[in-house]
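Table S2 (continued). Query chain:
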Amino acid sequence: MGRAELARLTGLSVDHITRLEQGRAIMPSSQVLASLAQALHLDDVERRHLFLLAGHAPPATDQVPRRVPASVRRMLDGMAGAAVGVHDAAWSLIAWNPLWAALLGDPAPSAGALCRNVAWRHFTASPSRVTRSPEQTARFETALVGDLRAAAVRYPTDVELRNLVARLRRTNNRFTELWTSRFVGSHEGEAVTVHHPDLGAVDLDCDILSVPGCDLRIIVQSADPGSSAAQALGLLGVIGTGTLPFEDDIAEQHDDGREQQPAGL
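Corresponding output:
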């Protein structure tokens, strides 16, 4: 699309668009950015990136972005020695590499969205292979609920997110306490133990990364090269998932109004 056509679609002058392209214009307004995003047919992820580049808070959108960019998929393919899971802003698992499935159970057979949501599984005590210390669990819960609260502000009309929060508030007192307390936490790198049904306890480093511009959360579980944990991951990379699925048979049965105690993830 040429400058003249873009000017016609946005109502801006060709000179203004030229100055924007060359970085000579004063910081554009949100209205100008919205016009450019509409004229260029940007999706939610691209629109968010445009606003961030221009120094503005991204506008709220109707839905939590659930598209995984090609760059993130390449990262998944390239991190063969680590278990990697990609989650959306509501902490639902949307992509993973083969080692993630082999280490934590294959998420593919999971039919419902709740079965793949980290917050739901944690606060409803769903089966988990990962354990944390009490101190780690407290930090993780505070950061997790803070993420959901922030996502609810950014995506106020996302039905799945609203339903998730409502059901968790009915189900778990700890979640409700954190949700109403307005505490803000941050995710930190930590050591966790994964209890694999075939290999036993595997001690791993767990890092949670944010992807700028697309509102994704990536959990990476890795081990020091040459360690026994690295050898275990290497073995899992060879044998794959086998017959061990993601434990998801409990996702719906907790929604009965009774308080549930959280489990590790």
